[in-house]
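Marked as duplicate of an earlier ticket. Keeping the data here for the record.
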Amino acid sequence: MPPETINTQSADETFAAGERLAGTLGPGDVVALTGDLGAGKTCFVQGLARGLGARTWATSPTFVLVNEYRGDVPIHHVDAYRVAGPAEMIEVGLLELIDGDGVTVIEWADRIASLLPDRAIHVAIAGVGDEPRTITTRRGRGVSDP
């Protein structure tokens, strides 16, 4: 499947892009997010979580590594920014989350690329600050693979 690219001009549009992707997700799906600091990864996840029926506002799990939200399916929001490597994510149970009954969303997924399943949906967000964003989505290996 070829990558899909959209451009967003605001945080609201980035949120809406996440919300739209949520409509295509179900139990067992893994979303691998990449992009620079300030690119809008958490904003995208907020829209995705809302689209999956989350009743609480998604916040960055940078310091706790994993946040969980209740929605139409369980949502596991993972942040690999501060991890030492894949082994640390295995220790916190990432593989069980990926193989579980929820949707797993991983920010900074490129830092743990070796743990991503082939079925992962890769979302790369380019642009920072007040710049428009380019969001490229691809199902399967490709967008954020090293």
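See parent ticket for discussion. The longest strand covers residues 133-139.
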